[in-house]
Structure formats: C-alpha cells, structure tokens
Amino acid sequence: MQNFTYFTPTKVVFGKNSESQVGKLVKEQNCKKVLVHFGGQSAKKSGLLDRIFDSLKAEQIDFISLGGVKPNPLLSLVEEGIELCKAEKVDFILAVGGGSVIDSAKAIGYGLANDFPVWDIYSRKNKPAACTPIGAILTIAAAGSEMSDSSVITNDKTLEKIGFSSNYCRCRFAVMNPELTESLSEWQTMSGATDIIMHTLERWFTAKGTENSILVDSIAAGLVKTVMANAPVLLKNPKDYNARAEIMWASSLSHNGLTGPFGNGDWASHQIEHELGGMFDVTHGAGLAAVWASWARFVYKENEERFCQMGTDMLGLTKNKGESNGDFALRAIAGMEGFFKSIKMPVNMEDLGLKLSDEQCEILAENCTWHGKRTVGTVKKLGREELAEIYKMARKAEAGR
To answer: Which of 163, 164, 307, 363 is deepest in the core (most CB within 10 A)?
Structure first.
C-alpha cells in the first residue's frame, strides 16, 4: 500500500430535521456575523431559509444573506460576496444548497481571508494563507464539496472554469437531511448520481502500476454499486427516503478521499467537462456522462486491466472464454455508458444538446491545458491534440466505436 495522508475534519449531522440544529452548530464556531449563501428561489419557497434564519435567531446570531448562485458558480457573484462580507464584517459563511453554492462560499472565504484578488488563487498566480470558516446545509446529493478540499469557479469574463484545492476551505460542519433533496427534478437527481459515480471513477483509474489497495477498491466498488442500485429506485419513486439517504451519504464519501486517498487519480474527465461548463453552462454531472465514455475509449489501452476490473467489481460482468482484455475493457466501458443511458443521462454532446465545431473543440482543448501550460490525466497524459480529439469523439455516438 502507498503512503498517504488522510484528513477529514468536517463534522456531519445526518438525518431528518437535522437543519434545525444549524444555529447551535454555528454558535460552536464562536463567530459574530454569518453570511447565509444560497442559490435560487427553491430554498425560499420551501421554507428552508426561514427555518435556518429562525435557528440562527434562536441562538442570537447576527446574519445577512446573499442568493443567486448559478449551477456553474460565477466569479462576479463571488466578488460581490467578498465586498459584502468585508462591509458587514462577516466571519462565518453558511452555504445552503449543493456543490455550486458551497464552491461559491469557499471562494468568498478565500477572498475574504486573503489580501489579493480571489481569481489569483484559481489561476495559480497566488496561494491562499487562510479561508474564512464555512459550514454547509445540503439540498442536493452530488458534488461532495461539503467534505472535500476543492472548489470550482467560472470566470464569467474569460469563460474559464478552474478548480482549486486546499485544506483551508474544508467545511467545519455539514448538515445532511435527505428529505431536502425530494424537491429536485429528475434531471438534477440523476446528474447528481452521475457526479458521485464519476468522483469515484476518477480515483479508480490511475496510471498502470499505481492502483489502489484491495480495501480502497472494495469501498469504491461498493459505493458505485450503491448509487447504481438506488438511482433507478428514485426514477420510479422520487420520495423514497432510504434511496435518497444512501445516495446522499455516498455523495460525501465519494469526495472526501475515502475511495482513493493516494492522490493518484486521473481527473481528466472532470477537466474536460469543466471547460464545457465554462463555455456552455452545462449541468456538471450530465456533462461528465457526455464525455466519460469517449475519454475511456481513448485511453483504455494504457491500463486495460483496470477497466476490466471495473467491469467485474462494479458492473458484475464476467469475462468470456477467449475474450481479450481489450475487448472486455470495451464491454465494461459500454456497460457503464449503458447505465448512464438507463438513468436518462446524455452520453455524447448531441445528447447534451451541443453541436461543437472543430474550432470549438480546439478552443476547449486549449483552455483545458491552460494554454499549453499543463497536461491532464494520469492513465494517459493528455495535451491539446489528444484533448481536441476526445472532444471531437464525444460529439456524437459512432456505430461500432
């Protein structure tokens, strides 16, 4: 087993009505003023914000609020939040929503705690020395940002979507009530399920010879199978509490390092999708489903055995007599692609509603490499030419591919 450091400091409060404890949880942080950060109107209409405000008032905690977070959180709103927090002397940020809201809160926290433009952190021009403390109340199971060290922000001027990771931004606590996800649309729920699977697959696929331990692989496979078993349940019955609870907990565990603590994951599919999100504002999980199979078919020969293991451990496939590793790997890729189709997710750009030109594919690839400054991926290192080819492959399903 490889050496690793595992750090998960987030306190989790899970279950029905758990949001009623938020006032006490915030009070434990010894803060003076809170920014309640949220997305659209659903938190208001559902009464969730009112319940949160009442809980804060009951503990005599002063607060202000800022809504308007988009599915791909924007730098402009982050900058607005930073200025608001400075003016109001905010010292704690409470994110109410999903990964986008939490990511936006983390960016505000960075901007508030450091004396340079927050985009300098994401563009790697400067390093943060701190982050204002953050807590989260989840309303969607997807990103796992409540227990991760990462956040992703879209610069709405340049259309770049870039992530940054550090332990400074880890949430102090995360409140998870699966009932709060019942108002989500089918599309949002299945996109979230896809995101959870992808967070696990990104850690599963590594450069040949750097695979994870038996224990970690077993946890990862069990998590993916849990999501694959419960997502179809929610297609039939969106009110099934147990299915929502299983998926919500899987969401956090998929992105807190438990399914791959060695730092050797691939993450190319996420980088490829980030550029789609920045340019076209696509739903993150759906975008991942649209590009994953093309990435997999482009790189599988670099580590056929790992794709075969995905087929056996996650999909329950059996290798046929005389079947080569390559053919079985391709069958496993088709199997995962088939699952995404079964939960009504797109598996190519056309399904996603995009018709990319060659020029757009080249621009996306250029942005993905940070204008030639990096490659992405570990299974196979991908530069501009390779990334452009993957974007082109993902445009439309090809017979016999």
So the answer is: 307
In this structure, the strands spanning 150-155 and 160-165 are antiparallel
Q: Over 50: is that where the pLDDT of 400 sits?
A: no
* Closest C-alpha to 297, from 197, 191, 397, 384: 397
Neighbours of 324 (CB within 10 A): 12
Mean of pLDDT values over 329-346: 98
**Strand, coil or helix: 384:** helix
pLDDT category at 233 given cuts 50, 70, 90 is very high
Cα–Cα distance between 246 and 240 in angstroms, integer? 10
CB 104 within 8 A of CB 73: yes
Which pLDDT value is given to residue 44?
84
Q: Kindly state the average pLDDT of the residues 50-67.
A: 96
pLDDT for position 397: 65
Cα–Cα nearest to 273, from 185, 376, 380: 376
> Residue 370 and residue 383: Cα distance in Å, rounded?
10
Evaluate if residue 143 carries a pLDDT over 80: yes
Q: Compute the distance between CA of residue 255 and CA of residue 277 in angstroms, rounded to an integer.
A: 20
Which of 304, 253, 22, 21 is CA-nearest to residue 141? Answer: 253
Structure tokens at 273: 């999708």
**152 has which bridge partners?**
163
User: What is the Cα Rg of the chain in Å?
Assistant: 21
Burial code (b: 16+ CB inside 10 Å, e: under 16) for 51-83 equals bbbebbeeeebebebbbbbbbbbbbebbbebbe
Q: How many angstroms from the chain centroid is the CA of residue 49?
A: 24
Tokens describing residue 340: 């995404």
Give pTM, 2 decimals.
Answer: 0.93
> Would you call 367 helix, strand, or coil by DSSP?
helix
Q: Mapping DSSP to helix (H, G, I), strand (E, B) and coil, where does residue 264 land? A: coil
Name the one residue in this structure whose structure tokens are 């896809």.
Answer: 194
pLDDT digits (tens, 9 = 90+) for 215-229: 999 999 999 999 999
Q: What secondary structure letter does DSSP report for 205?
A: -
Residue type for position 78:
V
Triad 390, 254, 389: Cα angle to 5°: 5
Measured between alpha carbons, how far is 250 from 14 in angstroms, rounded to an integer? Answer: 12
pLDDT at 296 over 80: yes
Per-residue model confidence (pLDDT) at position 398: 55
